């Protein structure tokens, strides 16, 4: 007899570093999911801003099947056509001249930080090693990226951390001025903090970082792992602001659900990544690149990007309507289809309590820290699913309020 996996199997067989919800989705189509019992859910979580075209979008399925029957993997001993096409597509559509491909956001940031350090050594000397990052930021779970990240709970308890890392306050340029100097190698920033609570960067703050980097010959790294590939309503959020970084990292929505990451850089900076300085066996994997190329080409069109902005307005209207009735939110914020609703004082720290209630009502959502309900749905979520998902969210919130 074949074994039907259950949630208990997670506790038996999987490393205990996650605490997944009780239901196990088995099938997805567009913005709907079905679990083992055949119950249906609307998906506002989008695999944490990954499923940019929902589940099993025909364009991505087609790219996967087509490439899956041709060539999957070679390693970087050879190059391959999908990787070259993806790199060209990213260069053609952004500030960047060069692309390094990898398989995750953390890996893209690891490459960005190593490149920044190497560039500084090449052009200025070993003393220029300080990396400035921000409290509450999130850049991945490798030991370098998690140490650069601004949430000590993730980096502490693993022994000595890599050095030369400084943290400033997000959206507070003065706090950066206190740390920046000629020993600054790079400033790494999310144009909008994702894991840190869906906090958009202020225009003058991000412009100030660009200016400080120029003044001190430091590199500006935009971590767009969560904000990138249409999420913000532009292909990348740096375009919303009109502020150009030297290095940009991308993952999550880039593969629409297939693991892929990319580090984009100008020629002047990328030159330091000479043969042998860095690598990744899976980086530029043909299957991953083919799917990512299909996602980028589909998303970077006026129809899809305008659709993201329109859906943003719809999300905001629905959340405001819910809030007028129930007063659970203090602020509704975000860009494009990366939205956060901060809990009001009476419900401080209760965002996580909404998630299991929402699941019972047939809705998948997310949090960003204990105090912010987060939504990162498909960029092409049908408007009817937004309305139905919001009706389910409202029922979950009614239950939260009733139990208070
Ligand atoms: C998710 C995320 C990462 C890490 O990406 P992984 O694919 O989990 O390694 C890095 N930076 C930001 C801004 C993220 O949201």
Describe this structure in words.
- By secondary structure, the protein is an alpha/beta fold.
- 40% of the residues lie in helices and 18% in strands.
- The strands form four sheets. Strands 4-12-11-10-7-5-6 form a seven-stranded mixed sheet, sandwiched between helices.
- Helix 4 (81-93) runs parallel beside helix 12, helix 13 runs parallel beside helix 15 and helix 14 (351-361) crosses helix 15 (383-403).
- The radius of gyration is 21 Å and the shape is globular.
- The mean pLDDT is 97.
- Bound molecules: pyridoxal-5'-phosphate.
- Residues 104-106, 109, 138-140, 190, 194-195, 223, 225-226, 251-252 line the site of pyridoxal-5'-phosphate.
Summed up, what is this model?
By secondary structure, the protein is α/β, with parallel strands linked by helices. The protein is built from 15 helices and 17 strands. Helix 3 packs antiparallel against helix 12.
- Helix content class: 40-55%
Q: What is the CATH superfamily classification of the largest domain?
A: Type I PLP-dependent aspartate aminotransferase-like (Major domain)
Tally of structural domains: 2
The fold-level CATH name of the largest domain is Aspartate Aminotransferase, domain 2
Descriptive keywords:
alpha/beta, 17 strands, binds pyridoxal-5'-phosphate, 4-stranded mixed β-sheet, Aspartate Aminotransferase, domain 1, 404 residues, 15 helices, Aspartate Aminotransferase, domain 2, single chain
């Amino acid at each position: 007899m074949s074994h039907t996996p259950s949630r208990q199997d997670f506790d038996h067989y999987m490393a205990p570093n996650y605490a997944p919800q009780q239901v196990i989705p088995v099938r997805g189509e567009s913005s709907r999911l079905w679990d083992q019992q055949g119950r249906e859910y609307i998906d506002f979580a989008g695999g944490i801003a990954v499923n940019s075209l929902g589940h099993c979008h025909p364009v991505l399925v087609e790219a996967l099947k087509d490439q899956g029957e041709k060539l999957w993997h070679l390693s970087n001993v050879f190059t391959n056509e999908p990787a070259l096409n993806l790199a060209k597509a990213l260069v053609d559509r952004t500030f960047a001249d060069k692309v390094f491909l990898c398989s995750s956001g953390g890996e893209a940031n690891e490459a960005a930080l190593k490149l920044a350090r190497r560039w500084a050594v090449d052009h200025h000397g070993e003393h220029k090693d300080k990396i400035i990052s921000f409290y509450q930021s999130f850049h991945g779970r490798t030991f370098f990226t998690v140490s650069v990240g601004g949430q000590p709970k993730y980096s502490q308890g693993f022994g000595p951390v890599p050095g030369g890392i400084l943290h400033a306050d997000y959206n507070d340029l003065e706090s950066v001025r206190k740390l920046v100097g000629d020993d600054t190698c790079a400033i790494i920033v999310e144009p909008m903090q994702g894991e840190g609570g869906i906090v958009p960067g202020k225009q003058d703050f991000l412009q100030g970082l660009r200016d400080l980097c120029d003044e001190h010959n430091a590199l500006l790294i935009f971590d767009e792992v969560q904000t990138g590939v249409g999420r913000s309503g532009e292909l990348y959020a740096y375009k919303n602001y009109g502020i150009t970084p030297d290095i940009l990292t991308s993952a999550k929505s880039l593969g629409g659900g297939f693991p892929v990451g990319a580090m984009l850089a100008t020629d002047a900076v990328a030159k330091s990544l000479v043969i042998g300085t860095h690598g990744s066996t899976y980086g530029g994997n043909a299957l991953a690149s083919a799917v990512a190329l299909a996602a980028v080409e589909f998303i970077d069109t006026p129809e899809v990007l305008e659709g993201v902005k329109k859906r943003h307005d719809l999300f905001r209207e629905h959340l405001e309507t819910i809030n007028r009735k129930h007063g659970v939110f203090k602020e509704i914020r975000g860009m494009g289809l990366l939205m956060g609703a901060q809990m009001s004082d009476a419900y401080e720290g209760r965002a996580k309590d909404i998630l299991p209630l929402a699941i019972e009502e047939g809705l998948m959502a997310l949090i960003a820290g204990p105090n912010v309900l987060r939504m990162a749905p498909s960029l092409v979520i049908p408007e009817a699913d937004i309305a139905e998902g919001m009706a389910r969210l409202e029922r979950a919130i009614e239950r939260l309020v009733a139990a208070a």
